[in-house]
Amino acid sequence: MTTGRLKVGIMSFAHPHAGNYISALLSRGDVDILASDPGAATAPSGEIRGAEYAAQHGAPYVDSYEELFRWQPDAVIVCSENAHHRVDAEAGARAGAHVLCEKPLATTVADARAIVDACEEAGVLLMTAFPMRFTPMFEAARAAIRDGRIGEIVGATGTNNGKLPVGGRSWFVDSELAGGGALVDLTVHIADLLDAVLAPEVPELVYAATNRILHSENSAVTNETGGLVNVTYSDGTIATIDCSWSQPDSAASWGGLTLQLIGTEGSIDIDPFALRVEGVDEANANGFWLGYGANNSVPLINEFITAIRDGRQPEPSGQAGLRAVEIVAAAQESAATRSAVSFGEAPSD
Amino acid sequence: MARAHAAAWEAIGAELYFYAPSGSAAVADDFGGTECSSLAALYAAAELVDICAPTPHHLNLARSAVEAHRHVLCEKPLSRSATEGRQMLALAAAHRRLLMPAHVVRYFPQYAAAHQAVEDGRLGAMAVLRFHRSGATPQRPWFTDDNASGGLILDQLVHDIDQAVWMAGPVATVYASENRSERSGAQAQTAHVILTHRSGAVSHCRGHWGAEGTAFSFGFDIAGTLGTLTYDSRKNTGFEMSTTRGASPTEDGFMPDLGYFTNPYEVQARDFLQAAQTGSSPRTSAEEGLYAVQLALAAIRSVAEHRAIDVDDEGDHS
Amino acid sequence: MKVAVIGGGAIGTVHAKAYVAAGAQLVGVVEPVTAVGERFSTAFGVPVFDTLDSLLAGDNPPEAISICTPPFTHRQLAEVAMKAGVHVLCEKPMAHTIEDARALHRSAEASNVTFATAYCHRFQPELELIHSHIETGEIGTVRTFFNAFSGHQDDIETRWFGRKELAGGGALIDAGIHSIDIFRYLCGEVDSATGTLATVLDGTGLEVEHTAAMTLRSVTHVIGTIECSWKSPTGQSIVRVEGSEGSLTFDYARQGQVAKQSRSGEVEILQVSPGNRFEREIADFIRSVTVGMRPRTGSLDGLVGVAVLDEVYSQSDNRSLGSSILNEVA
């Protein structure tokens, strides 16, 4: 049990969620924050990073992680490029800070497992930032399923489709830094929602079909831009995830996420981004959306801080992050070998 | 299914004759048609034959019909096995008769509009396609008897497999998973088929036979290099009513609600009639019906073997 | 499910073992030959009945039966059982004559119970693999089929198998009827059939053929060549299907393996989990009865087999070209 004010460090602004977390933390009033974005120095020009980004979001700022750790944070939030999560999370754990890591937890299963191990060894808590878990629609779905309203789940279809994410942060399409293409960017959210709904069942077989037909004219894009991932779980439940950057550049919104769960006695469709007013104006001939859904970063940050104060495991855990990475890795292997990949033994849990 | 077809024939002014081994008086009465006592009598009376019998009977019925020199419209799936389907094509060819599989979804205006847009190049190259269809588990027992119907994949998903081919072309690889829940006593099964087309496009077809009371719904999401198209029968209905009298009993959940659009069974019947009379090409060829069966069988095999099936190139099916 | 076996001989014992393996409850055997009945009764711990009627009239009647008696008895037994509401798995051939086969098919169609014809080779896992490979186009368009079921059966011609009026024929109706069904399963419906029979053995004329060759043509013009023999000392059991893109071969001596040869000549051995075809056939029959599914092979499949053989037998009756040609040449 930790009382008093908590010190939370923000590591990197590579992921634009950093700003959401800063405002969610500041709105609590019981935490002090300090941010550092050493990667700003090498970020492409035109991307707002470093001190400027910190100033925009009202976060105190230091230039290096050394300075950040000298401040002795109780917790850190890792918002660096996917490929840097491991190094940053391990540094945070070594400094004795609890870790909230942006999704995906890592770009390889080995890295994800290393993060989980490092936090366990250091005796710090690890949480993976899957904000969709905190949408009221998903919570309502979970409650309905728990109450048996649609019987037993037999299958699911999830879609996470977005525009090619090149606008604010170009590293998303850099295979080194992102760890892959649309498969890595878009699979994990739904994989995690399914993990939460289907636990304790685990994936047994993964098949993925991908292509690079969309945006093939864009030379910056070297990875898959379209993909379908099929997962068979240990109780026979089957699910497919459409993880494609298939939202046209001209569309009214960045994209969206939907999940349909089919049960023996009914079905549930959730569309967390449905809370919106739709409009058209001269500047947006294809329309624009005024979303009025709650900011999911607030309950996510609250879960992290409350769990630290209560000394309990925050959810979604690092293990959940690891399981999502395992699905992505299996899907990547499947797409590369064009064959279904067996999970074999249940992932470590 | 016979009733949907009969209503379409009646609407376009055809003179109707019926035959069923168990008798067809009830249907004949409802549609002002004549019940025939034998297949021979049916073939003697009718110029065109529409086979609505369970899938295992398609081959023998199609054989006798073409031998009697009748053009044949045959309910989908064309056949229970590819071997039977090939025989039906051979028999139709030998007797120079038209054999048209009734892939009625091609005549649903939503799908026809999407196909036209794809053909016109409005979406650019096809990239990622999704098709879904839900309905109540059919009540007639032969549907849920795999030996007879081929189950959910061959009977229901064959529609969307055909759509995926229609929109994105021939297929190189088929992968499928299926879940038949025997839990909680409720009948529910679902299957997912992932097709990798020869063009590289990928398609997801999701089928579902749910418990009694499951509403019929269908739709698609098609993404190409130049744009996307989306349809969901649960939206865009054009008419919604709420009443304080509580939930109204819905239709049987096995057949779609045709809402306010042109009856696709009628358009299909007209297309068949025109092809039979003028020799024009119908929207669906027998080869395409056979191809959909082959892909569905590959999906069934994929479920059994837990692996992706490479589908051999047996000529141009486009 | 309560089941009984009609005919306690070799094939009846095979059925009984498969029922036990499937967890069915064996309630009796009908076997008029005392020694045979006793042996069966000891092996399976069930009472022996003289007739089907006494079995059905007893305290513990079966819900389903396997008919494992000589072919000339099949129709009558099956019709009695079906009339009593008992499901029937009938050994091949479905009947010894085309007339009986037609009549039995009509009775089965009119009945509310399940009637299955026991074509066990449809349940041979290796043939199922070949079937699924053909269905999904792995060997292209099927062109030819070859099947041999030959072996050495010492005294078979002296048992009921060698009596035309009991069995309906010889090696063809015994083994070749399986071949016809396998051909239909893998290549499609039979469009035409021809055959030739050997009935002279070591200078003795038999009532039925001990060796035969048969050619079948399917609707899609797949040509099937079939050899059956009771008197082949080395013997072979093999099924081979050739298509436009390659071939698939199953040699019954190599269980669990199917050889797939591509156009280029490359041979790949496909592995299959071996399975007992009789046990799988019985399991399918039980499933058909309990959940009301169609059995994999019903009465029509039984009738077609007999009809194809009837065609072959009628062509072969009393036909000998040899002497007339030789006379002309001389």
Automatic annotation (TrEMBL), chain A:
It comes from the Bacteria. InterPro entries: Gfo/Idh/MocA-like_OxRdtase_N, Gfo/Idh/MocA_Oxidoreductases, GFO_IDH_MocA-like_dom, NAD(P)-bd_dom_sf. The keyword NAD applies. The keyword NAD applies. This is Predicted dehydrogenase. GO terms for molecular function: nucleotide binding. Residues 138-268 form the GFO/IDH/MocA-like oxidoreductase domain. It comes from Mycetocola miduiensis. Keywords: NAD. Residues 49-129 form the Gfo/Idh/MocA-like oxidoreductase N-terminal domain. Gene3D superfamilies: Dihydrodipicolinate Reductase, domain 2, NAD(P)-binding Rossmann-like Domain.
UniProtKB/TrEMBL annotation, chain B:
InterPro entries: Gfo/Idh/MocA-like_OxRdtase_N, Gfo/Idh/MocA_Oxidoreductases, GFO_IDH_MocA-like_dom, NAD(P)-bd_dom_sf. Residues 111-229 form the GFO/IDH/MocA-like oxidoreductase domain. Gene3D superfamilies: Dihydrodipicolinate Reductase, domain 2, NAD(P)-binding Rossmann-like Domain. The keyword Cytoplasm does not apply. Residues 22-103 form the Gfo/Idh/MocA-like oxidoreductase N-terminal domain. One of its GO terms (molecular function) is nucleotide binding. It comes from the Bacteria. It holds the Pfam family GFO_IDH_MocA. This is Predicted dehydrogenase. It comes from Mycetocola miduiensis.
Automatic annotation (TrEMBL), chain C:
Gene3D superfamilies: Dihydrodipicolinate Reductase, domain 2, NAD(P)-binding Rossmann-like Domain. GO terms for molecular function: nucleotide binding. It comes from the Bacteria. The keyword NAD applies. Keywords: NAD. Residues 131-248 form the GFO/IDH/MocA-like oxidoreductase domain. Residues 1-117 form the Gfo/Idh/MocA-like oxidoreductase N-terminal domain. The keyword NAD applies. This is Predicted dehydrogenase. InterPro entries: Gfo/Idh/MocA-like_OxRdtase_N, Gfo/Idh/MocA_Oxidoreductase, GFO_IDH_MocA-like_dom, NAD(P)-bd_dom_sf.
